[in-house]
Design goal:
Largest sheet: 5 strands, mixed
Helix content: 40-55%
Order of helices and strands: HHEEEHEHEHEEH
Radius of gyration: 22 Å
Strand order of the largest sheet: 5-4-3-6-7
Low-confidence stretches: none
Mean pLDDT: 90
Strand content: 15-25%
Distance between the termini: 77 Å
Shape: elongated
Amino acid sequence: MTNTMRDLVRRFILITLPALLCSVACGTIVEDLPTYEQTSIVVEGDTAPDFTATLIDGRSIALSDMRGDMVLLIFFSHTCPDCKNLFEDLHDSKEEFDAIDTQILTISRGGTTSEVEEYFATNGYDFDCAVDADRSIYSLYATMYVPRTYLINREGIVELTTVEYSPSHIEQLLSCATQL
C-alpha cells in the first residue's frame, strides 16, 4: 500500500469512526421500536384485568376488591427517570386525587421489594405499591414501556391511559377522574 493510500485510509478512519460513534451515542441511528399501540394489551374501554398482589407493607390487594372506587393504576420502574418525574408530580397532586376518591396503586415492573422500599423511602412516596418481579401483572396490560397509567372507573373499565410521561398527564388524569 502506498503512503498516499495509507494516508487516505487513516483520514477516513479518523473522520468517519468518531462520527459513527457519535451518531450511535447520540441516538441518531434509531432502531425500530414498537409503538405504544403495538405494546398495549389493555386500552381505553377495556375491563381492567384482575390481579392480586402483595404490597411492600405486606398487605394483599386484589384489583377486583377495589371495584366501587376509582383507581389510578401505575406501572413503573424504580430506575426510570420518567417514572420519578411522574411520581414527583403525582405526590404534589395526591390531595386532589384523594378529594375525588381515587385510589392510587403503583406496581413496580421488576426490581426487588427492598429496592422499591428504599426508592419509596428515599423519595418520600406514600402510594400503595407492589413489586411485580416476574412481570406477570404487567404482562396482562402491556409488553413494553413505563410509566403506564390506567384510570379505572368504579365499574372496572379503563377510562384513560397514558404511556411514558408528560407533565400534562396529571392534569388529564385529574380532569377525567373529576368527570366520572
